[in-house]
Design brief:
10 strands; about 300 residues; 5-stranded mixed sheet; alpha/beta
Length: about 300
Amino acid sequence: MNIWLRRTAQAAGTLILLALCSCAPPRSSRIVIGAKNFTEQVVLGELLAQQIEAQFAAEGHPQKVDRRFYLAGSYICQQALAAGRIDAYVEYTGTALTAILKQPLPPPGQRDPAAVLSTVRSLYAARYHVRVEPPLGFQDTFAMVVRNDDAQRLHLHSISDAARIAPQLRLGVGYEFESRPDGLPGLAAAYNLKFASLRTMDLGLLYRALANHQVDIVAGNSTDGPIPALGFTVLADDLHYFPPYEAVPLVREDSLTRHPEIQIAMDRLAGKVSAEDVQAMNDAVDGKHQDVTEVVRDFRAQKGL
């Protein structure tokens, strides 16, 4: 073999090796916790990370947990979890059911939280070897939110009330809600919603746009801190369109095998976080600009965690 062919073969071999390495899921010696790109997810990701670190410390072998936060949405988090780039993150059961597992929305009368959790749990185990841990203790459902003065002036108490005057209202939504199966398309069909206009934006801009009268109604989340802080009104989902959205940690089964401390930490967190708790933490970070690490540390201290 001449030198040119030898170098070509060596280069080809190197490229093949690099390709194989890039396809292999990267496994860190450290535990990696992920989170989506909004405040509540960062709060919950920090909560998981701190609790796992506390468990390692309690057993006499402290270990730092890596944070991989601000991942762009459910799909990216799921891909990172499936590929082994993160070991765990917090998801919501309704989101998992529809946006990730691609299951149809159950009929309104059959949206029992326990049934949805059971379905999600079995499908994650079978498809991804991921354990759906016990719920943290709260639901974060989608919420249609209006300014309080508009709610009083226009007598808006429910989404059906808003549907009557929807052609006069400018709607603001996040990018994911605009297209996901349990989001805007299904909601609009269920309530016959036809808004004057639609603006799609980052989640962090929704309430600012509502407060500044750039939109008249937004699709937020029920535990968002700005809702009580800015005096906004959540409209009742009177047709019970949205499924349950219990917050549950998702953890790779092989991660639990390598690090049993994760399971102990998850068991300690089960049922410990109320909707009021997470809303207060969200507001502390968003509205009061407190450091998320300190906010979560204070919460854990209050709960004896």
